[in-house]
Write a structure and sequence with these properties.
This protein is α+β, with helices and mostly antiparallel strands. Helices cover 22% and strands 32% of the residues. It has helices at 13-22, 34-45, 144-147, 179-186, 192-195, 294-299, 301-331, and strands at residues 52-57, 67-71, 74-80, 86-90, 105-106, 109-111, 118-119, 132-134, 138-142, 167-175, 200-207, 220-229, 232-244, 247-255, 261-271, 277-287. Helix 4 packs across helix 7 (301-331). The protein is globular.
Length: 337
């Protein structure tokens, strides 16, 4: 039995945060109009991607072991060639179909674990490489068969701070939903302070998109305070936009960290063993600051990255529950939007 006055062990700390927050903050459900969110998602899905998909963090693909992932139902293998360049192609060995993602790499050459067939990234025995792009933070692969769009030479990459003046971190997680459900979560800024009271307070949506300005996507402008420690908060103004059908970007426009970027990339994987869709969410954080002391933060980047990834992991534990719930409602015809 819990002692008198103790919180029930069945109530999580996040739930207690939400219960307390619910008494003091203004409800946002009237502003979070389902049609408005649905229109923003529809506009994002109509934008071109050029058939580019995020594979994962660029640093996750190394020179000694292959990286394997199924993207949009297509098995993909990636590694680094002898010059350190990103290489990717079909994940099945052209000999007998072995999973190349489990193969070792030596001096830029991948060797199949089954019979030792060697691939250096050039076409061989029916194996053809896929177009790839390494932007220094993320690794991308172009899958024209899966995308079905007019190919673009490079992916649509958001504007970022200069790498030498920033601290970066990348976190990837997987959920049972489709990319559009991830976009819908990010294009609903009104849920932030209610669903994440441990991270955000005083969130106000200043402007919501009604139409796009030429080829530039309209976005959601918000004012929000980030919790940093105890009762300390940092107020900022941010803009959420969706530059392609699988990406939402948050730019910090004003306040601490002005110029920082958080990119959310949704990559469809394929169905699970029950036929439900799976999507990998790759969140890239590029943090910068104009404060002179930020140079110390850059020097401490190896220690900061695990903390940044942990914060992203906590947020996406909740946000994937949102996205998965939305997919469940959509798939059963019960979604009110």
């Amino acid at each position: 039995m819990p002692r008198a006055g103790a919180a029930s062990p069945s109530i999580s700390r996040t739930d207690r945060h939400r219960a307390r927050a619910g008494w003091v903050q203004r409800p946002t459900w009237r502003d979070a109009k389902p049609a408005l969110i649905a229109d923003a998602v529809k506009a994002a899905l109509a934008r071109p991607s050029g058939n580019w998909f995020v594979l994962g963090a660029a640093h996750a693909i190394g020179a000694h072991r292959a990286f394997g992932r199924t993207v949009a139902g297509i098995e993909v293998v990636a590694w680094r060639d002898a010059a350190g360049r990103l290489v990717a192609g079909p994940g099945a060995c052209p000999h007998l179909g072995a999973p190349l993602g489990q193969s070792p790499v030596h001096c830029g050459t991948l060797r199949c674990r089954w019979h030792g067939l060697a691939l250096d990234g050039a076409p061989f025995a029916g194996w053809e490489p896929f177009p790839v792009h390494d932007d220094g933070l993320l690794a991308w692969v172009r899958l024209d068969e899966a995308g079905g769009e007019r190919p673009l030479r490079q992916p649509v990459i958001p504007a970022r701070p200069r790498p030498e003046g920033a601290v970066t971190a990348v976190h990837t997680t997987t959920g049972g939903c489709e990319p559009e459900d991830v976009l819908a979560n990010r294009l609903d800024p009104w849920h932030g302070a209610w669903f994440h009271p441990y991270s955000f307070v005083d969130l106000t949506v200043l402007d919501a998109p009604s139409e796009s300005d030429g080829e530039r996507p309209a976005g959601f402008a918000v004012e929000v305070s980030f919790k940093v420690a105890g009762r300390a908060v940092v107020p900022v103004k941010a803009l959420f936009t969706a530059p392609d059908p699988r990406t939402v970007v948050m730019h910090i426009l004003e306040g601490e960290g002005q110029g920082s970027v958080v990119e959310t990339h949704a990559t469809p994987l394929g169905p699970d063993d029950r036929g439900r869709p799976r999507t990998a969410v790759t969140e890239a954080i590029v943090a910068t600051s104009r404060r002179p002391g930020f140079a110390l933060a850059r020097a401490a980047a190896p220690a900061l990255r695990p903390l940044m990834r942990a914060a992203s992991r906590r947020l996406w534990r909740d946000d994937l529950a949102y996205a998965e719930r939305r997919w469940e409602l959509r798939s059963s015809g019960r979604h009110p939007g």
